[in-house]
Amino acid sequence: MSELIINLQHQIDNMKKQLPTAAATEQDFKNYFAERDNILEGMLKAVSEERNVTTTELQDMKDAIKEFRSLMKNQATNMTQLTMRDIKVNLGKALYAAWNKDHRTLGELQFTPNLRNEKWNNPKDFTWNAEKGFVPTKSVLGEPLGNMATNDQYLINPMYETAIMEEAAEKSVMMNLVTHRLMTSPSIYLNERDKGGIELKWLTSYGQKIEATKSNVPTRVELKAYTLAGYVSWFDEFSDDTYYEIGDLFIKDMTEAYAIEFDRQCLIADDDPFTGAINAAKAQVHTIKSTDESKLTYLDFRAAELKIPAEERRNCKWFMNETVLNHVANIQDANGNPIWRKPGDGMPSRIDGYEVIESRLLPQLSELKADTPIAIFMNPKRIIHGDRKGIEIKRFDDTTESLEYGEQFMRFRKRDGFLVTREQANIEILKTAKSA
């Protein structure tokens, strides 16, 4: 029998053992089976192009693929959807297993070892075999990774990663507003244009000369991804009967910290390693008439808005601290009445018709000194978030705290990139005046 056929049959057998019985969302069902279907198509193509494969072997492989597809179809019909509690229990079980180097439990929960520093492993490239351990599916089938005793880094099951990021999005101001780009490499280049890329010309008579036109050549901008690390305290009293508490603690601590950092990179980061909207080099500035908020008026907001082109302005929002919004809501007219609300009304959700997004990261009212940003007016879709899939966990006790206080940590790492694009004539910073 052809070596290719043997390897592919091993791969199908491993995929049968890895068929999930549950998933976090319906979309996870669809994504999983779509990925497996692509793998099967690749197998069929490889067998069809192999010269040494006999007609009988080809038919046997087609039958094996057909059988596996039938199994997937039945599994999809009977698969159950995991609750958030189920996810926390399984995540806690995996974290406990990672701490204690329990490879069998990690494999059964579809957590995979991460052996590379720069280019992370793809969880799809591994299967778990109770007899052999973690087996890479992209190399020679049947060969385990070898000595796992020195490897403490594991990638979280992508199904749980999706659930974790959904939790983070609920705590973040910006995650549901920006543009997300999936990154498969550390760096990608994007084409940035202010207008359409083609200049049009009307021809009004037969045989008229077609004048040369100059297209709006895009600027290439680079989106880089870096690795973000954090540490969740680990306690010795964690035991087998506290899986839910472990998973719940990890998700709460990680998502709260990650949501704040995500918003910080989008809004106020100052080249560390990304630059947020408030520090964008080409952002326009509208300055009010005073060095504090005392002379801030409705006309300042209106003047700032009108500096953004109308076609871009309709997608813009105001971003400011809640204390600034409270002050804005109480700006009074000549008769002493609030401009944006009547006495007893709640906080306004819009200023001059544009939605207001509150963020505690932006300057508070008490911080408004000379030459200080008050608010940002922009289209948040112009901020690009590069998402390199994968959350890595690792037992980590090589710290000063562990030596001095016995405190230990579970480290997590995630890779992200942030880029503020088209800031010129698309981002307006409302600021106080400079001191004389």
| Sheet having the most strands | 6 strands, mixed
Class from helix and strand fractions = alpha+beta
Low-confidence stretches: 140-144, 146-150
Helix content: 25-40%
Number of helices: 11
How many strands?
18
End-to-end CA span? 87 Å
Kindly describe this structure.
- Helices cover 35% and strands 22% of the residues.
- Strands 3, 6, 7, 10, 16 and 17 form a six-stranded mixed beta sheet that branches. Strands 11-18-15-12-14-13 form a six-stranded mixed beta sheet.
- The protein has helices at residues 3-17, 26-49, 55-78, 84-99, 103-108, 158-171, 243-267, 298-306, 310-313, 322-329, 400-405, and strands spanning 22-23, 80-81, 112-113, 126-129, 133-136, 153-155, 179-182, 187-192, 219-224, 226-234, 284-287, 317-320, 350-351, 354-358, 373-378, 383-396, 408-420, 427-431.
- It has 436 residues and is of the alpha+beta class.
- Residues 140-144 and 146-150 have low confidence and may be disordered.
- Helix 1 runs parallel beside helix 3, helix 4 packs across helix 7 and helix 6 (158-171) crosses helix 7 (243-267).
